[in-house]
Design brief:
Radius of gyration: 17 Å
CATH class: Alpha Beta
Oligomer: single chain
Number of helices: 9
Structural class: alpha/beta
Helix content: 25-40%
Number of strands: 8
Order of helices and strands: EHEHEHEHEHEHEHEHH
Mean pLDDT: 95
CATH topology: TIM Barrel
Number of domains: 1
Largest sheet: 8 strands, parallel
Low-confidence stretches: 265-272
Strand content: 15-25%
């Protein structure tokens, strides 16, 4: 039986889950995924994430925010709507927010404006931030440093960076989210050494489903859709890379996630 784990980043409102969402959740729970955080990346998906959290508040929390890809779709007039979403008690963090200069679906200026607005809202409502950064480390860090001393907490979601980026995040007292990227022999092997540098009390794990299906799953799934039921596989890879028992890493990452996202902290409730 797999130890209980928490998936801190799951795009469960994605339309690829529309036909079998309940089955996906049931399969994850059967695999040992005790709790899941449903990611919001637009106002619409944030509302959907909150609705899912309300459907099973003992299992789900939501994030509410605007991904940098969608920053150009987030005018200042939408700030009150996001503020209201962030005040929902089932919203565990502000975001997914940050900078992404890899694709620049929104201009860097729009991304920085949206990022600062969401950091201000996180400060206002007193919630941690769920952070995204790709190919924008220096600009991202410069903005985050302005706010970090006043923020409740932050997690670098889906960390895929190098040692300098990791060390900068740890210096800012951020938690680090590790996905199945660490299972990718083409582009994730560097994470296998870096994951050892993450203090156990700052480590969390996630699938980012339906994206980032672990490439080393055996037997290989028929499709390319990632699911939260594969989180125990990511746990085992992370634990092996750290040279620690999976049960120890599971207990720590679960404890970290429950505290960060505002779940019930009593371990007796993990299976409820």
């Amino acid at each position: 039986m797999n130890p209980a784990v928490v998936d801190i980043g799951l795009n469960l409102a994605h339309d690829s889950f529309d036909a079998d969402r309940d089955h996906v959740v049931e399969a994850a729970r059967s695999a040992g995924v005790s709790h899941m955080v449903v990611t919001g990346s637009t106002l619409g998906s944030s509302r959907a994430a909150i609705a899912l959290a309300r459907s099973q508040p003992n299992v789900f929390r939501a994030t509410a925010g605007v991904h940098p890809h969608h920053a150009r779709e987030f005018p200042d007039d939408d700030v009150p709507a996001l503020r209201e979403l962030l005040r929902d008690p089932l919203v565990g963090a502000a975001g997914e927010c940050g900078l992404d200069h890899f694709r620049n679906f929104s201009s860097p200026a729009d991304q920085e404006r949206a990022f600062r607005l969401q950091l201000e809202l996180a400060l206002e409502v007193g919630k941690p931030v769920f952070l995204h950064q790709r190919d924008a480390h220096d600009a991202f860090l410069a903005i985050l440093r302005d706010y970090r001393p006043r923020l409740a907490a932050g997690v670098a979601h889906c960390f895929t960076g190098d040692q300098r980026e990791l060390d900068d995040y740890l210096a800012l007292d951020l938690s680090i989210g590790i996905t199945g990227w660490i299972c990718d022999e083409r582009r994730g092997l560097h994470l296998r050494g870096l994951v050892r540098r993450i203090p156990l009390d700052r480590l969390m794990i996630e699938t980012d489903a339906p994206y980032l299906l672990p490439r080393d799953l055996q037997p290989k799934p028929h499709g390319r859709r990632n699911e939260p039921k594969y989180l125990p596989h990511i746990l085992k890879v992370v634990a092996a890379c750290r040279g620690e028992p999976p049960e120890q890493v599971a207990a720590a990452t679960t404890r970290n996630a429950l505290a960060f996202f505002g779940f019930e902290k009593d371990s007796d409730n993990l299976a409820n």
